[in-house]
Amino acid sequence: MNKKLHHYIDGGLKNAWLQNGFELRSTPYGKGIAIHDVEGLTKAICLSMAAKTISLSGIEFRYIRSAGMLLSQAELGAMMGADVQSVAQWEKHGRLPKWADKMIRVLYLAHAEGDQT
């Protein structure tokens, strides 16, 4: 059985496809989608990105910051010892310093394990 995949583009993601955990619905405004566990999906996506062996893109970095950790650019910058303009540039242009790529992964993993500091 070949179940239809859904291209999940929340937060600007380009390479996220859902195989399950969603339901297509008709609404008065056209076709819609209901995600069964948005928090669980966000966590799964962020954990997958944190485990990648290649560098994060700016979009992935932003998704982890905003959807995964619920932080503003200024808040993340303060945690990382970087100014808000640097964080904005990394997200916009996708050119992250290696240390920033590694640090957001570590910060997200701590966040996912319940460390909110």
Describe the structure.
By secondary structure, the chain is an alpha+beta fold. It contains five helices and four strands; from the N terminus they run ββββααααα. It has a two-stranded antiparallel ribbon. The chain has a two-stranded antiparallel ribbon with strand order 3-4. A hairpin with a 7-residue loop joins β1 and β2.
Summarize the structure.
The chain has 117 residues and is an alpha+beta fold. The chain has helices at residues 38-50, 58-68, 73-80, 84-93, 98-112; strands at residues 6-8, 16-18, 22-27, 30-35. The strands form two sheets. Strands 1-2 form a two-stranded antiparallel sheet. Strands 3-4 form a two-stranded antiparallel sheet.
Sum up the structure in keywords.
117 residues; alpha+beta; two-stranded antiparallel sheet; 4 strands; 49% helix; elongated
